[in-house]
């Protein structure tokens, strides 16, 4: 089974880890790059790197960065008077330094990340959503703020007045992404924040049309667990988008893209599987991944 997962943030990365254990190299992850940032002289791509660290077994227990990493470089930058508001561990920064070197040599973001993930022993494909820049911005208190500043400097709790994916109307999915979707047996939308983690992917020029035309069913995994949001501004983002912070609200946000959804509630008018999607342990990640694959098999057996 060739599976394409659209992913951003921790929820999507955890599902990717569960799927990877089951189907290995048959998994392709299309990762949000609206969070990318140029900082400390490097190009940081948080979501592709987060997914890579999960699949490589390197993820730190806090859920981001590399386990056991040190912070000597950022510590020295502080001594030099740099405002270090974005934390990068030393090994994490080394990945970003190498990405920057590869990009300077002329590689695309897709090509550069393929080199990095292969070097870390990951056999699944992790594809940046586009080789062209897209910047997610939040309008709060009358000012546009890049997403990393909103999430870290403002704690992700400031009022959301608007959301913008700058450059998305001109950026297209990479050729590798388009080929993966064309070859996919199923497309999964991960349990990520639908607006700021999946939204940039769907905002790419032509992406929604490509997904709708695909012969593969599109299955979403809801980020709502037990009627609540586990972390981050998902509820506030969905309210901004005009839908409830519920499985039904998530389904309405994705609209005609979906063939099915899995989550904590049945969704009227849509093939759905009610299942616990909490993924705090390896066993839970595998369970959710297995439930998703079983739902896909049921769609294939009974498409109507």
Rounded mean pLDDT score: 95
Order of helices and strands: EHEEEHHHHEEEHEHEHHEEEHHEEH
The top-level CATH class is: Alpha Beta
User: Structural class of the secondary elements?
Assistant: alpha/beta
Stretches with pLDDT under 50, minimum 5 residues: none
Radius of gyration: 18 Å
Identify the overall geometry.
globular
For the secondary structure, the number of strands is 14
Largest sheet: 7 strands, parallel
Q: What is the total number of structural domains?
A: 1
CATH topology: Rossmann fold
Give helix % range: 40-55%
CATH H-level name... which superfamily? CofD-like domains
Strand portion: 15-25%
CATH architecture annotation: 3-Layer(aba) Sandwich
Euclidean distance between termini CA atoms: 20 Å
How large is the count of helical segments? 12
Spatial ordering of strands, largest sheet:
5-2-1-9-10-13-14
């Amino acid at each position: 089974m060739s599976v394409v997962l659209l992913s951003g943030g921790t929820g999507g990365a955890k599902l990717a880890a569960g799927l990877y254990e089951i189907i290995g190299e048959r998994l392709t992850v299309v990762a949000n790059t609206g969070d990318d940032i140029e900082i400390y002289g490097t190009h940081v791509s948080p979501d592709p790197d987060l997914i890579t660290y999960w699949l490589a077994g390197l993820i730190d227990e806090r859920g981001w960065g590399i386990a056991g990493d040190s912070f000597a470089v950022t510590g020295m930058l502080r001594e030099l008077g740099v405002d270090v508001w974005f934390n990068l561990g030393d090994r994490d920064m080394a990945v970003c330094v190498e990405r920057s070197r590869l990009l300077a040599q002329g590689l695309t973001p897709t090509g550069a990340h393929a080199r990095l993930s292969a070097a870390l022993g990951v056999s699944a494909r992790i594809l940046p959503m586009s080789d062209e820049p897209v910047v997610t911005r939040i309008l709060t208190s009358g000012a546009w703020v890049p997403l990393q500043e909103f999430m870290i400097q403002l704690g992700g709790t400031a009022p959301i007045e608007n959301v913008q994916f700058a450059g998305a109307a001109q950026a297209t999915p990479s050729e590798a992404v388009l080929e993966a979707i064309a070859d996919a047996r199923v497309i999964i939308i991960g349990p990520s924040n639908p607006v700021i983690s999946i939204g940039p992917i769907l905002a790419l020029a032509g992406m929604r049309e490509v997904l709708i035309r695909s012969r593969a069913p599109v299955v979403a995994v809801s980020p709502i667990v037990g009627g609540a949001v586990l972390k981050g501004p998902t509820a506030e983002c969905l309210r901004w988008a005009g839908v409830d912070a519920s499985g039904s609200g998530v389904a309405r946000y994705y609209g005609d893209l979906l063939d099915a959804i899995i989550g904590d509630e049945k969704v009227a008018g849509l093939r759905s599987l009610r299942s616990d999607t909490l993924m705090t342990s390896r066993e839970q990640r595998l369970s959710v991944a297995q439930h998703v694959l079983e739902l896909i098999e049921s769609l294939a057996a009974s498409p109507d």
